[in-house]
């Protein structure tokens, strides 16, 4: 992943998805994205490459 290989550390923040989904313009976009899977892969690759990662939740 380019995000991991080009950075020394990656910081992740948990978003209030329930609050974001209340915005009717963003509902479909936010619901379609598999955020938990993306974050899981990001953490896995950071550990694989020996990069630091911080989860803020």
Would you give an account of this structure?
By secondary structure, this protein is of the alpha+beta class. It has one domain (2-56). Helices cover 51% and strands 18% of the residues. The protein is built from 4 helices and 2 strands, in the order H-E-H-H-H-E. The chain has a two-stranded parallel sheet with strand order 1-2. It is elongated and about 40 Å long. The relative contact order is 0.30. The mean pLDDT is 78.
**What's the SSE pattern?**
HEHHHE
Count of spatially separate domains: 1
Helix-residue proportion: 40-55%
Please give the oligomerization state of what you see: single chain
Secondary structure tally, helices: 4
Count the beta strands: 2
Mean pLDDT: 78
Major sheet characteristics: 2 strands, parallel
What structural category characterises the helix and strand content? alpha+beta
Adjacency order of strands in the biggest sheet: 1-2
Q: Please report which band the strand proportion falls in: under 5%, 5-15%, 15-25%, 25-35%, 35-45% or over 45%.
A: 15-25%
Give the termini separation.
Answer: 23 Å
As residue ranges, the low-confidence spans are none
Radius of gyration: 13 Å
Backbone shape: elongated
């Amino acid at each position: 992943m380019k995000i991991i290989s080009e950075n020394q550390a990656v910081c992740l923040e948990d978003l209030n998805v329930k609050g974001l989904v209340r915005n009717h313009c963003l509902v479909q976009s936010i619901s379609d994205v598999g955020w938990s899977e993306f974050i899981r892969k990001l953490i896995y690759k950071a550990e694989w490459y020996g990069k630091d990662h911080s989860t803020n939740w």
